[in-house]
């Protein structure tokens, strides 16, 4: 069977590759041989991830990009294309969150979260997949969804709505891109302490999360690498598209 998970010769673009979860996934893809573009708004974090990958023998370069700006996404795609010639794997990991009570929610905040989590995702995929199609490159798109996408989480109303949208986009594009040989899947992570959810993880909420997580612990970012490598590899998951892979310690299998 050879190595089902070998990504040698593939180029991956990790949007939000500077995030806690995105960085771990990017390192996992690089460890399997993928050349990788680390994209962040914050270049300091992106450079640190890139440096670590290179120190471990991988090939990587950092790029600056803001997914809420069409202009920035287009510029980013051109810069990465000039560096690598194209890409086979696209990881979409940026995310924004907030815990504003429903009646206090303002349109600006709704737009701010949707601009990154959903609108940004749509226009990023549109831009990057278009170039894959033009180059007749087959490949894999991996979106980072959330447990709140299937059953909303209390407090994070806008975030949950945006992630439900991520699932819908994933399934829609699985059909749309299948004729081009581009697979589109999502990972549904459970709970992993990171920047965007730090403020939301109060003591009570952590207790509630643990009560609903059969494995009774947070996830470690490295525990997402296997799922991402599997979805990225045409040899391992060549007939898998439009699906959601849960990495959540059993959270999604629990009600009470
Ligand atoms: N941590 C968790 O428990 C958890 C669970 C489920 C899903 N997720 C998802 O994982 C992904 C990564 O988040 P994380 O938890 O590692 O948190 P994080 O705070 O480390 O990362 C969020 C990232 O989004 C980026 N970002 C925000 N606005 C952006 C913009 N306009 N353009 C480009 N990038 C932008 C930030 O720079 C940051 O790198 C997100 O999509 C998040 O919703 C996280």
From TrEMBL:
<keyword id="KW-0560">Oxidoreductase</keyword>
<dbReference type="InterPro" id="IPR036291">
    <property type="entry name" value="NAD(P)-bd_dom_sf"/>
</dbReference>
<protein>
    <submittedName>
        <fullName>NAD(P)-dependent dehydrogenase (Short-subunit alcohol dehydrogenase family)</fullName>
    </submittedName>
</protein>
<dbReference type="Pfam" id="PF13561">
    <property type="entry name" value="adh_short_C2"/>
</dbReference>
<comment type="similarity">
    <text>Belongs to the short-chain dehydrogenases/reductases (SDR) family.</text>
</comment>
<dbReference type="InterPro" id="IPR002347">
    <property type="entry name" value="SDR_fam"/>
</dbReference>
<dbReference type="InterPro" id="IPR020904">
    <property type="entry name" value="Sc_DH/Rdtase_CS"/>
</dbReference>
């Amino acid at each position: 069977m050879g190595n089902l998970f070998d990504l040698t010769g593939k180029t991956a673009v990790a949007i939000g590759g500077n995030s806690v979860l995105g960085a771990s996934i990017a390192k996992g893809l690089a460890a399997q041989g993928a050349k990788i573009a680390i994209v962040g708004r914050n270049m300091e974090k992106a450079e640190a991830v890139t440096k670590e990958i290179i120190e471990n023998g991988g090939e990587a370069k950092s790029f600056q990009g803001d997914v809420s700006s069409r202009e920035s996404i287009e510029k980013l795609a051109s810069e990465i294309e000039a560096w690598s010639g194209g890409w086979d794997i696209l990881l979409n990991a940026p995310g924004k969150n907030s815990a504003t009570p429903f009646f206090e929610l303002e349109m600006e905040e709704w737009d701010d979260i949707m601009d990154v989590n959903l609108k940004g995702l749509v226009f990023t995929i549109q831009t990057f997949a278009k170039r894959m199609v033009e180059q007749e490159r087959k490949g894999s798109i991996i979106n980072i969804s959330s447990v709140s996408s299937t059953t909303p989480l209390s407090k994070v109303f806008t975030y949950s709505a945006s992630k439900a949208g991520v699932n819908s986009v994933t399934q829609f594009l699985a059909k749309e891109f299948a004729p081009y040989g581009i697979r589109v899947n999502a990972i549904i992570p459970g709970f992993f302490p990171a920047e965007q959810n730090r403020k939301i993880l109060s003591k009570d909420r952590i207790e509630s999360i643990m009560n609903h997580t059969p494995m009774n612990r947070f996830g470690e970012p490295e525990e997402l690498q296997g799922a991402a490598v599997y979805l990225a590899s045409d040899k391992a998951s060549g007939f898998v598209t439009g699906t959601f892979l849960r990495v959540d310690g059993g959270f999604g299998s629990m009600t009470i």
